Amino acid sequence: MSGHSKWATIHRKKGLIDAQRGKVFQKLAKEIMVAAKGGSPDPNENASLRLAVDKAKAANMPKDNIENAIKKATGSQDGDNFEQVRYEGYGPNGVAFMVDCLTDNRNRTAPQVRSCFTKSGGNLGTDGSVSYMFQRKGQISIHDAYDEDEMMMVSLDAGAEDFEHIDEEFLITTDQENFVKVRDALEAAGVKEFVECQLTYIPTMEVEVDDEAKEKVMKLVDNLEDLDDVQDVYYNLKEE
């Protein structure tokens, strides 16, 4: 499995975090609050919260921000009305998109998302219209300061599907079922910090476009990610 396209997406997200750190932290806090309200406020007893906290830590969200989001969720009614909504559609040149949102008002979110697609020359589709083109996968990346052979052995023994050394990091891909097992195995082997640690969606088929079309696609991605209600944007553009 080639990791170049996945890796380009990961590093692009890291660049967005650097450029829009405050907004990213707000979205991560919302995700933590919703997860905390859905179960125990202890990440060790709440799998969804653990994933949200891991995602926040990988984005370098300060520990105080994470703890405050959990406290806010358990000590107030904020976040009670948030619901998860997914929009599917096609962007420029037929590139497939899935847009995951957390919203307290669908009547606000839907027109905003639809407007982004329309302005890009794309269109929203029905539920399931593009989701079959993506697979739910775990992606874990760590700095390559660790011993490569050991990290590969630990990852594969725990059920990882793929292990790659790209640039200065190791990228581990898992299926959804083994994601937590692989993450925990890496932590037990001494990994203290993850560059990326989350469940995501990886395209099973990618669309290759020219540079002009690619620019339009990435502008749509930027516009969607700039919306307050949008948490994650997945697309099947071939980026390498």
Q: Total domains, how many?
A: 3
Question: What percent of residues are in strands?
Answer: 15-25%
| Estimated helix fraction | 40-55%
> How much is the radius of gyration in Å?
18 Å
What oligomeric state do the depicted chains represent?
single chain
If you average the pLDDT, what whole number results?
A: 88
Enumerate how many helices there are, as a single number: 8
Poorly predicted parts: 1-5
Q: Give the neighbour order of strands across the main sheet.
A: 3-1-2-8
What is the H level of CATH, i.e. the homologous superfamily of the largest domain? YebC, transcriptional regulation domain
Question: What can you tell me about this protein's structure?
Answer:
The chain has 240 residues and is an alpha+beta fold. The protein has three domains: 72 residues, Integrase, N-terminal zinc-binding domain (Arc Repressor Mutant, subunit A, Orthogonal Bundle), CATH 1.10.10.200; 81 residues, Alpha-Beta Plaits, CATH 3.30.70.980; 70 residues, YebC, transcriptional regulation domain (Alpha-Beta Plaits, 2-Layer Sandwich). It contains eight helices and eight strands, in the order ααααββαββαββαβαβ. The strands form two sheets. A four-stranded antiparallel β-sheet has the order 3-1-2-8. The protein is globular, with a radius of gyration of 18 Å.
